[in-house]
Known about the structure:
Layout lengths: L2 H5 L2 H20 L5 E13 L2 E8 L5 E9 L10 E12 L6 E10 L4 E11 L5 E9 L2 E9 L6
Antiparallel strand pairs: 1-2, 1-8, 2-3, 3-4, 4-5, 5-6, 6-7, 7-8
Amino acid sequence: MGIISRLTHPGVLLIAIGLLALGLKRVNGASPRHIRLPFEATLAGVSGGGSVWEGPLHGARGGKVQLTLYQVESPLEAARPVWHARAQWTVAADSPERSFTAELEGMVDWKSGATHLSGVVTSGWMKGAWVQQIGQSVNGDMSGVLELAPGVAAR
Length: 155
């Protein structure tokens, strides 16, 4: 009996489909859903050459956030509406075991108010996870979402 005729035999085909389904389920189960942490932050001042925002973390996890934003370019570029920026996010969650620090990099468009930064959790809860900040700046205050993807950078 050739391989083609064995694969088309109903019993072998059902076993092959079952094994494939088990494999797919395991792959899907290995990548947990993204965790979304909505925030609001008010400009608190300047520290160590960076601008600092602080505020509440909303949702079921609760807590406080601190964002320190640094312009990557020289101070001469500060008047431009779009900055290449680095940021340090510190999340002090209501549950201390869910607190973390993350290092991000991306862009801030001061004219439109859009911010988009991404990076990695460097310490604490979910160390190694990919994190991105998608936000909006209005009258100097920041709001938006921190989104963590647990299985992406940790591999």
